[in-house]
Amino acid sequence: MKKYPCILSIAGSDCSGGAGIQADLKAISALGGYAATAITAITVQNTLGVRAIHPIPPVYVRGQIEAVMEDIRPDAVKIGMINDVEIVKVIASCLRKYQPRFVVFDPVMISTSGHRLIEEDAINALTQELMPLSSLITPNLSEAEVLTGHRMDNVEKMKIAAPELLKYGCGAALLKGGHLEGGKMCDVLQIAGEEKPHLFVSDKIESKNTHGTGCTLSSAIATFLALGYDMPQAVEHAKAYVTGGIHAGKDIHIGEGHGPLNHFYAPVPMKIIR
Questions:
Q1: Strand extents, DSSP E, the chain
Q2: Is 213 in the active site?
Q3: pLDDT tens for residues 112-170?
Q4: Looking at residue 146, what is its pLDDT?
Q5: DSSP 135
Q6: Which of 122, 124, 147, 152 measures 20 to 30 Å from 88, CA to CA?
Q7: Catalytic: 196?
Q8: DSSP labels for 72-91?
Q9: For residues 102 and 226, is the Cβ–Cβ distance under 8 A?
Q10: Which residues does the UniProt record annotate as the domain Pyridoxamine kinase/Phosphomethylpyrimidine kinase (predicted)?
Q11: Which of 99, 181, 87 has its CA nearest to residue 141?
Q12: Mind listing the pLDDT tens digit for each residue in 175-234?
């Protein structure tokens, strides 16, 4: 039987098109996957920042997930912004019920512009309900500081903190260092059961168009996992895709703030798997 590799994105909607569900749809499609979605919240935002967040009623979040799971049966799930405790519980319940092979969880707590996107009580729900069900979590430095209680401003501190993130029960943790000072970017991948971390180093690209890079990266990783890559390979290929997207979009003017990367700088046809 032939099929498309399906990735279900469970995340919030960004009306400006650069992050959230919209970024996920673009990234998954550009990499040859079939994107399905379950929207957790409607945000009012643009390149300048987030103005308001309206959560979708949990019963409708559950309904979206169940409709996709029962029919299309996705190969991987990407989870993005959730700012409501009941929605966290609904997603966790669905993951336990349908047990998708891969779950990539981007614990979105703080936007690029510094806006807090999540309620305090939701953080505990994320760590207790969702992280133990995740194949990979992908916090940025600000989010990792919330999760570990440690300030991180260099790679050595990131290498110490990455294993601490595994205490939440996830299969692996990718600590993103995009906001480190200096001309290099370094992400640290720690996989449960492995002693040494995987380091991914690249040159920093000067660009204000970085809106949605975290959403895009996690969706890309989920797509490569669905395509059969192992975890380090999936992260490596996803990072290369995001780097290319930032470079291709760095001189484009979209909005007056942080514009998006170029998701379709090198799209590939939809993959067909057996």
A1: 6-14, 34-46, 49-55, 76-79, 102-105, 136-137, 172-175, 184-191, 198-203
A2: yes
A3: 555 666 777 888 899 999 999 999 999 999 899 889 988 888 899 999 999 999 999 99
A4: 87
A5: S
A6: 152
A7: no
A8: T--SEEEE-----HHHHHHH
A9: yes
A10: 14-262
A11: 181
A12: 998 767 777 889 999 999 999 999 999 888 999 999 999 999 999 999 999 999 999 999
Q: For the domain 6-249, what is the CATH code?
A: 3.40.1190.20
Cβ-count burial 199-233 (b if 16+ within 10 Å, e if not): ebeeebbebebbbbbbbbbbbbbbbbbbbebebee
Closest CA to 92 of 62, 59, 52: 62
* 148 catalytic per annotation: no
Q: Which residues contact 154 (CB under 8 A, 6 or more apart)?
A: 180
Among 47, 99, 83, CA closest to 258: 47
Residues 12-68: pLDDT tens digits? Answer: 999 999 999 999 999 999 999 999 999 999 999 999 988 998 999 999 999 999 999
Could you say which of 215, 223, 249, 259 is catalytic?
215
Per domain, the residue ranges of the chain are 6-249
Among 12, 18, 80, 214, the active-site one is 214
Q: Which of 86, 89, 36, 97 is nearest to 56 (CA)?
A: 86
